[in-house]
Amino acid sequence: MPAPPEMDLSNWITQLRKGLLELCIVSLLGKREMYAYDLVKRLARIPGLVLTEGTVYPLLSRLNAAGLVETRLEESPTGPARKYYVLSDEGKQAMNLMQTYWADLVNGVNQLLESEEEHG
Amino acid sequence: MAEWTPEAGRRLQQYLERVAELSRARGDDADDITQQLRAHITTETESQSGAVVTLEHINRALALLGTPEQVVGVEAVSVIEPRAEQSAPSVRGYGKNTSIYVWILGVIIPAFSLGFELFTGVMSQMYKDPIPTWGHLAAGVALIGSIIYVDRTITGLRAGKPVSRWAFILNAYATLVGAIYFAIYLPILPIAVLAVAAFGLGIMGFSPLFVFAVSLGQMRILYRNLPALGIDTSWARRRSLTGAAIAAAILGVLNGPDLAGQTLLQMATSDNPQTRSRGTWWLETMHMENYVLDSCYHRVVTGIGPTRRWNDADIANWRACRELYFRLTGVPYNSVPKPKPVFGLSGRSTARNWQNQAITNSEIGGTEVAGQVDGLSLSSSTLDANASSAEDGTAGPAIAYIEWVVEFKNTSDVQREARGQIALPHGAVASRLTLWINGEEREAAFGTRGQVRAAYQEVAVVQRRDPALLSAVGPDTVLLQCFPVPAQGVMKVKVGISAPLTIRNGKAYLRPPYFEERNFGIPDDLEHHVWAESATATLTGSRSLTADANGGKHSAHGKLTNDQLSNLTSGVIELPAPNAMGITYADTLGSESASMTLRPYAASSSDPVSICLVIDGSASMNQLENSLDWREMVNALPANALVNAVFAGRDVEAWSRDFASPSPALAEWLTNREYRGGRDPVPALEKAWDMVSTKPHAVILWIHGPLPIDLSSIDGLNQWLQRRPASASGELIRLLEVSAVAGPNRVIEKCGDLAGIERVPVIGSLKDTLAYAAKSLHGEDVERVYTLAPDPAASNAGATAAAHVVRLAINQRVHEAVRRQNKKEQSELADLAVKARLVTPVSGAVVLEQQAQYTRHGLDPTRNEEAIPGIPEPEEWALMAIAACALVFMLVRRKTQRPASAHTAA
Q1: How far is A78 from chain B (nearest CA, A)?
Q2: Is the ipTM of this complex over 0.90?
Q3: What is the pTM of this model?
Q4: Using alpha carbons only, what angle is made at residue B564 by residues B563 and B565, rounded to the nearest 5 degrees?
Q5: Residue of A nearest to B76 (CA)
Q6: Interface of A with B in 32-51 (CB under 8 A)
Q7: Is B791's pLDDT higher than 80?
Q8: Domains of chain B, each with CATH number or no CATH
Q9: Of B230, B365, B620, B623, which is the most exposed, with the fewest CB atoms less than 10 Å away?
């Protein structure tokens, strides 16, 4: 019995989101310094991008471990201490590469999809 | 910083541990991830949940974060959006229409009841006062507010609104307070049921039940939803216990003083002496005098806690409180302003007035002045005095007639009885009572003491008509009673007094009468208008009085405040004392004749006198700090006297085991005593009597303040006075008593007529009086010898105002008969006193409204009308001057005819 189509699709979506999520994170941090909770809430506003807010934190941790972001802690008057993230120089280079790659990819995929629609 | 329920904390910990486990498996920085997740959840939940973070809040936050597997990326997420609500447990709020019932039973009816009680005081009259103080009212309002808060919380459950800890705290507060109110008011619930069934009224009586039931129901709903709310039961219980503790603390603070006061009052009025002493000590230490004063008026003060309502029939309780108040303060309870109601609006004040009225009614027509009544005051006072004089410009027989017109005003809405104990000048007798009825002066009828009191009680207490009563309560003291002083009206009476002047150090003194105990107020700005006149003798008075002469008569006049009038050392009017002694003054009153001779006291024996000082240890003596000098008094004692002293303090203390010469050590000992509370003088007097009775030429000098209460029986003292009246030398033991502070003295009232007791009036300063008494061992320079028979040898020496000799002679005979306890003689003298229209221990005066009332009691106000004394009108002075001239002429002529004739001594 074949697996339900949505299960296969969900895996595809998951993989797609993971890649895009990293792109979005570095893009946001490339513009300004942000703290984690704020970053998560900002990403959550992009429809369909973040289904589970918790997934952002491992990604941030990995970006930090890879040296693409730099962090600092700051006390908050209303809650726990905030950890602020900002792109390192390496992170900025990575962001440029990722954005270039994403633009080419979107352009190519769009062309493909449009030509398929015309033929279809 | 929000508070986390334990379950919420545990849930988060489990989640993070799982995330950390998976992160480490993937080679991620587990600490960094979990730290960030914890901060995220904290920010998320605390911004949404308010004060308390429950399991429900955590579950919602975690649902948004995703499972640990999703977070770490080891599990694919579903395309179906996670719905936190799906996993949240469901809650159960009110049933259908329940909220309406909660509002009607738990809010509207209790709030109405509270408001109704606030304005009317109905419940406080019927049973117990639920809101005796503003604090109790606030506690009641908080109770209703708590029910509303919990109601809003329960209503918000279905909408997913969080439950704060205050819901549990306030609910527990409301439940406990409601339970206590319910328990207290349970006894009247059956009455409320009957009232509702019969009349449709009385729903207020159900309020405590409703409040309790609603709070209990709300508590049930809150606790039933604990699992659904993800709230740990133990956490909720702790909040409930907090609420209960707050309720208990508030009730404790509000009712603690009442509870403590009632307990201590019961101890202090116990039959057991040790318990009584302990209770008194605690009340004194905790300065609860005002609480005791409040209880003297058996005012109803009840709260959520215990009741302090004396049963009206249980007279002993409030009587005991009055005694206790004196024991604590040394001050008569009715000499200080009546305590105001602790709390009350107009309606409640009216209710309290009715309560007090019921109490006051029980005292109408009684023989005690009792407590102050609301709204009754002295509105005017006029004192006219006519002092005797002789042609030599002295006071002659040293007698004055005083008329005191007082008007009482009642601003309350109920009838009041004015009662006042009047301190007469020493040796005086009340000889007139006049009451104004409908603007007309009505003279009193005189009858035997029992006769007039029975008439007064019937007319005043039963018929509630217009009588006034004047009766003797002790030596130099009469009780004036007037009823009713109408609501919002006035009542005016006049008291006539025949008074001997006090002769001391060559001067004659008139000490005006004053109220020494009263149940009415005297405004601070009230002034007694005083006017004393004499035909020939020059009068001088205190600084407030002006002395002058006009139209051939001398006068001293002015206005005295009540403090000046009742202060023993002020308000005294002075005249030149008669130069010659041994003159006999005679007079007739109807068919009665009497004479009086002023005679210096016989020179005292050269043998040493044994003097025992008895000093009142009451706090009232502290008032005399500046006017009392023990050293000066001790120095004034006769040099050859042998002295001892007994101090009536907490215990009876003697200065020395035996009598010794006066010394500074005695003055120092007296100065160092502790004058505190109200002390019983009777044991000290008994001890003094015991000490002096074996000594020769014995004198007791008793210096005391007010004693408004019988603190102990005087039977023992009476026994000493009667069984051992004489000292070892065979002379009568004399007890000189000095009232150093104005006020009633129950021991003097009861024993004053007994042999040997001699009053020493305070004239001038207390220091001078004590020095005089210590030196002379008498109250004045002369003794008056009265004879109730015509005396053809009497000279009168051109004196005026000697017409009161008969009255004073009869009065003295009555007191002697009382002293001898000769009932037959007293009965005979009662007829004489009635005939002479005198208020004595065996006779009194009463004014009634109708002739029928007099007839029913065998009284006749017109009997011996010719014996009614009066102040001479101005035109009478001319006649009196002529009469004086005639007398002088006759005297001169008689002396010329009978040069050998000497002035007769009685």
Answers
A1: 8
A2: no
A3: 0.69
A4: 95
A5: A11
A6: 36-37, 40, 51
A7: no
A8: 3-87 (no CATH), 98-255 (no CATH), 256-360 (no CATH), 371-563+571-585 (2.60.40.1730), 602-780 (3.40.50.410)
A9: B623
